[in-house]
Each structure stands twice: as C-alpha cells, then as structure tokens.
Design goal:
By secondary structure, this protein is of the alpha+beta class. The protein contains 14 helices and 14 strands. Among the domains are: about 50 residues, no CATH class; about 170 residues, Cytochrome Bc1 Complex, Chain D, domain 2, CATH 1.10.760. Helix 5 crosses helix 10 and helix 11 crosses helix 14. The N terminus is likely disordered.
Length: about 525
C-alpha cells in the first residue's frame, strides 16, 4: 500500500517538474497550450514553478494524511476520529495553532462517520420506538419531523460541487421535516457552498451589535425623557424597519423587518434561522448524521429540548445507539475553526474583449435594475476577528480561539479598504436580511416561525459553480433562478424579463463571473 502511494506521489511530482520544464522551453510550452476559449477567465499564464510546487505539496500532504487516516480507521474501526478532531480539553491544554486546527478540521469535514462514532440511532428509524444499539444507523432519505434522517455519512458528502467545500447537486438534496417515508411530505433543500463563511459570520455579529446598540440607546432615551420614541434600524446600510419604545422603555417590534424580534442577524440556513457557525454545525451533525452533541444531551436532560427532536433514551444516550459521547465541544470548535478559515469566492471576468465589455455592461445592469438592493455587492467589515467558544456553561471560563477571517487559512481573502487594515470589503452580494419572496418561491413549509415564502438573501459569490440554484435546486440555470423570484423581488424580476436579449446576456455573463479561485486538490 505504501509503495503504491509513493509511486502515485512520484507521478504527481513528475507532472509538476514537467510543467516547469515546459515553461522554460517556449516551443514546448506553445505546443502544449490549448487554444484559448472565449469565456476563459483572466489567467492567461500558468503560475510560476514555485507556486505550482507549493500548491502541489499542500495537496500531496493532504492526500497522504487522508490515506493514513483511512488505513488507521480500517485497522482500528472508529478510532480514526481521534486523529480528525481535538477534544475541548486538548484545545485548552495544547492551544493548537490556527493552521493545525484548519488541517484537522479539514479531515473532520471529510471523515466518514461510523456506528462506533455515534452515526445514526438505535430507534428503529423513528423516535419513540425502543430498539437496541444493533439497529443503528437507521439511515433514511426522508427526514422524520425535526428529528432528521440521518441521510449522510460525512459533511463532504453533500458539499463537493465545484470543488472542496462546494455546493450539492440536486441528487444530494435533503428532504427535511417530512414523515420519514415520502419525499413529497418533506421540505426539500439543496446544499449551498461553504466558502467565505468566516467573513459572513463576522459581518452578522457586527450587524447584530449595531442593531442592539440602536435598540439600547432608544430604550435609554425613552426612560430618561419619559416619552415614547421611535428609531430607524439600520446596519451597514441595510434597512431593518423601525423600532418603537414606550415611555416605560418597552420595545414594540411590530415595525421590525427582515430580522427576528431579538434583532440578532442570523446568516445561516436558507431562511436565516441560525445565528452562528457553531449552531449550524451542531444542527447538521444531528439531523444529517444522527450524531448528537453533549450540549444537546445536557439540554435534553434539563428539559430544554423535546425528546421527539433527538430521541427518547436516557439523557447520555438519547438516541439509543450505545454511544454516549458523539459530538464533544472540541469537535464543534475544530470544525468551526476550519469553516471560518475557508477561502472566499472571487470575481473572474472573461478576458475576450467583446465578452469583457458585456461583463462590464452586465455589472452596470445588475445595479441599474435593482438586483443590488438585496444582493448588495459588498458590505464593510470592521472587526475581522471571530471568537470561537465552547458555548457551554461548564466551559464558561475557557479562552476563545480567535480566527482572523481576513488573514487566517486559505486564500484568497477579503480585501482591506485602507492601508492600515481598519476595514475590509466583503463582496458577498447579500444584505444578510430576510425577505418575502412570494408564492413563486413558496417552499410549501413553514420553518419554525418563519413563513413559507420567507428566505434569507442568498450570497451570490461563488455562484458560477453551484448549479442547480434556489433553496430546493429547482432552477437548472441562473436565468431560471431569476424568473422564479417573486414577492419583494418581483419588480426587479419583471424589469429583467423586459430587457432585450443582449442586456440579459450581459447580466448573465457578469453573474457567471462570480466564481471560485482554481486550486490544486488531492484525489
């Protein structure tokens, strides 16, 4: 096995050196260079040898590590997970660096969980039915209410379209909140790509802080003057409606728009129901893999979580699969640190002069017809430091892991607006606000208190490699996705449909330039 791996790696290195040789020989390079395509992005030359070899080394190291873990887990089933995560105690004791957390989190993201790790449940496929641990994992394609599937073995299973940490294809769609059997009973969801989640989390935290400050100031003014007051809620140029405060300092949130009454901006989930990366990870583990966190177990013990959501066993093995410790706080911290450090998508215009002119015209049309009102081309971030904390009472005294979303991890990163780095431009094409998209995009299901047609403005960065589009993957093309827009977006949709073909083509060329930076990846 080791010899085969060595031969394979040698072949990859040989390819790298042959590319370098071609670059030094103009005739050989010209013979190998393909005819330029009109839609080719602006990368006319290969990277230099040093860059290629550096990226190859990273890809090779990841491949070697993944292969080692595969063999280790095969020899000692279920133990491979120890190499793919840190416990919270290990994080506190060792203070692993950001780079190591990224590398280990990358493995955890790809790790295929086993029954020994707590995959699935021992509930004969549904809560409330007693069964033994030998019944796990009880996989099912259609989720049972809020309990979930499980429907997957790893995070990477549904996030690979367009490259590592990418989107999901329509065959990977999840069927949420169903009856456990019939797909038509469920709320279908297509997995979005995960690039740029760190800056998005930091932006949401900053916007929440701004809204809370506006609310607290209004309450203080009302109490001091003993007069009712009203304030416009706005964060980073995004309008969140109006907040009224009585003379007694009691807020009236009936005029608040696009955010919950708590004024916490929740940027994760198609409807914007999760405020933090950690919450999204924990929920995904539970409903997609049947892996229950220790925090959720404790909440079940304390009566804070309905047994139908996670199982009906004893609190330390609520899903009756015989595994008590499935998701420890350190596992969540490891994966959160990894996702927060992923690269951001980029804008990659075509280099053909005619198409480049259409790209520029399309960018202008995007703004002229009002797409940018919700899909804001950029938001400004002032605090790029994202604090990662266990979030459990017993870890309240732990020191936070700090990820700088502008510098740490994979590149490219968000752009500094000023030389001193006091602010950064995040080109996500979203306002991180919820909107009513009307009957055209009605999902048919309410999610908690969020109505059937309420959706978060999906960030458009990375759009090019994430088809199919929309929350359930119903749109095979960008054009189809625009046509499905309704509700608050209907006026802009109607203007788009009224454009002549050349104008629509220009807009689509611009939108399809919202891509990701190519990178070498291990097989």
């Amino acid at each position: 096995m080791a010899q085969a791996l060595t031969i394979a790696l040698a072949g990859v290195l040989a390819l790298g050196f042959s590319l370098g040789a071609c670059r030094r020989d103009p005739d050989a390079q010209a013979a190998l260079r393909p005819t330029p395509l009109p839609f080719a992005p602006a990368h006319p030359e290969l990277p230099d040898d040093a860059t290629i070899l550096q990226e190859m080394q990273v890809a090779i190291e990841r491949s070697q590590r993944a292969h080692y873990e595969q063999i280790f887990d095969a020899i000692d089933p279920g133990e491979g997970i120890e190499e793919a995560t840190f416990t919270q105690l290990a994080i506190d004791a060792q203070s692993p660096g950001i780079d190591l957390l990224f590398a280990v989190g990358d493995e955890l993201f790809d790790y295929e969980f086993r029954v020994e790790n707590g995959l699935g449940n021992g509930l004969a496929g549904r809560p409330g039915v007693r069964a033994g641990p030998n019944k796990a994992p009880n996989m099912r394609r259609v989720h049972k209410s809020e309990f979930g599937g499980p429907d997957s073995y790893s995070c990477a299973t549904c996030h690979s379209k367009g490259g590592p940490d990418g989107a999901g294809t329509n065959t990977q769609n999840a069927y949420l909140r169903g009856n456990g059997k019939n797909a038509l009973s469920a709320d279908e969801r297509n997995a979005p790509h995960l690039l740029g989640l760190g800056p998005i989390a930091a932006l949401a935290a900053e916007m929440t802080s701004i809204l809370h400050e506006q609310r607290d100031t209004a309450i203080a003014e009302a109490l001091a003057s003993k007069t009712a007051t009203e304030v416009s809620l706005e964060a980073k140029g995004v309008d969140f409606g109006r907040l009224r405060v009585s003379e007694a300092g009691v807020p009236d949130t009936s005029g608040v728009r696009g955010v919950d009454e708590d004024l916490i901006v929740k940027p994760f989930g198609w409807k914007g129901h999760q405020a933090t990366l950690r919450g999204m990870i924990e929920e995904s583990f539970r409903i997609h893999m049947g892996i229950v966190s220790m925090r959720e177990q404790a909440a079940f013990r304390d009566g804070l979580i309905d047994k139908l959501d996670i199982g009906d066993g004893t609190w330390f093995d609520v899903d009756r699969d015989g595994v008590a410790t499935e998701v420890e706080a350190g596992m969540l911290s490891t994966l959160e640190a990894y996702l927060a450090q992923l690269q951001i998508p980029v804008v990659r215009p075509p280099r053909d002069e005619r198409l480049l002119a259409m790209f520029s015209r399309g960018e202008a049309i995007f703004d002229e017809i009002g797409c940018g009102h919700c899909h804001r081309p950029a938001l400004e971030l002032h605090k790029p430091e994202l604090a990662i904390l266990p979030g459990e009472a017993r870890y309240a005294d732990r020191r936070a892991i700090i990820v700088n979303v502008a510098t740490d991890g994979e590149h490219p990163k968000i752009d500094p607006l000023y030389a001193e780095g006091s602010a950064y431009r995040v080109r996500l094409f979203s306002d991180l606000r919820r909107h009513d998209m009307g009957p055209e995009l009605n999902s048919g299901y309410q999610q908690g208190h969020l109505g059937k047609s309420i959706f978060l403005t999906r960030p458009l960065w990375g759009l090019a490699d994430t088809a199919p589009y929309l929350h359930d993957g119903r749109a095979p093309t960008v054009h189809d996705a625009i046509v499905w827009h309704g509700g608050e977006a209907q006026p802009v949709r109607d203007i788009y449909l009224g454009l002549d073909k050349d104008e629509r083509d220009a807009l689509l060329i611009f939108l399809l330039s919202l891509d990701r930076e190519p990178q070498l990846a291990s097989p």
